[in-house]
Amino acid sequence: MHDYTLICCDIDGTLLGPNHTISVRAKRAISDVVQSGITFALVSGRNAQSVASIQKELSLTGAMGCFNGALSLDEQNRVIDERPIDYQVARSALGELAHSELEFFLYTNQHWYVQSRNCWHDAEVSYSGIAGTIEPLCQLERHLDGSEKPFKLLAMHRDPSYITEMTGTLQHHFQGTLDIFNYHPNYIELLPTHTDKGRSVRAFKAYYHIERDRVIAIGDYYNDIAMFQAAGMAVAMGNAPADVQAHAHHITLSNSEDGLARFLESLV
Q1: 87-192 has CATH 3.30.1240.10 classification
Q2: Residue 115 carries which DSSP code?
Q3: Are the beta carbons of 217 and 233 closer than 8 angstroms?
Q4: Residues 152 and 94: beta-carbon distance below 8 Å
């Protein structure tokens, strides 16, 4: 009999299969663990609206971690923990991106924004299921203050060499104020400093008064390692890179083989 009371689960590459859908078996397994008394929390790099839409598909009402741990919400959509990008830093980053060849999105706790509809916008809508708000840069800045807070900027370009060049430039200009990295040859992600998925796990543990050894973290990629380190049991997917699997206590099958469902079924 297990003593786990919280499962923190990644979405892309873990919950979702290669076709970006959730299998019937996974839905049933998640329902069974929730019925057994375990809280099932989604923790992702996605924005809150996208994570909430997946929660709805799963009939979940639990906590969720968004923007790679920069924003953690409870089951009532109240903030448990947040680390938005500083307002002036966000304005400066928007200005620099606008004077480059990069296309870019701004994500806040309420919406995501793009200057014009293009192929990047359409790809994001297809990926997240959430339509962006189209506004010019001069209007975007008014969304960076008050209750609407900036949490992520995403920049993109078709030329990987330009992405590499601009990643270095942005890292130099915003050293110490933004975490900037590539997670794909055509994308640059700009996030608040001192955030990772482990931050959401720690926030949930403190909020719900759960001990570390009663938490399971499940994921498939490098940004899941911090989540693994904050949990009592770390489960890596079979499709995870070997050096990600090396941080796990248990390795399940891949997301194309219902690895998540198979692991969850072993708990109930």
Answers
A1: yes
A2: S
A3: yes
A4: no
pTM of the shown model: 0.89
- 82-117 residue pLDDT tens: 999 998 899 899 999 999 999 999 999 988 998 888
Closest CA to 192 of 43, 71, 94, 64: 71
The structural domains of the chain, with segments of one domain joined by +, span 6-82+195-265, 87-192
Question: What are the residue ranges of helices labelled H in the chain?
Answer: 24-35, 48-58, 87-98, 119-128, 137-140, 160-173, 197-208, 225-230, 242-245, 259-265
Structure tokens at 185: 């040859």
189/209 Cα distance (integer angstroms): 32
CATH architecture of the domain covering 6-82+195-265: 3-Layer(aba) Sandwich (3.40)
- 202: alpha, beta or left, given left = phi > 0 and alpha = psi -120 to 50? alpha
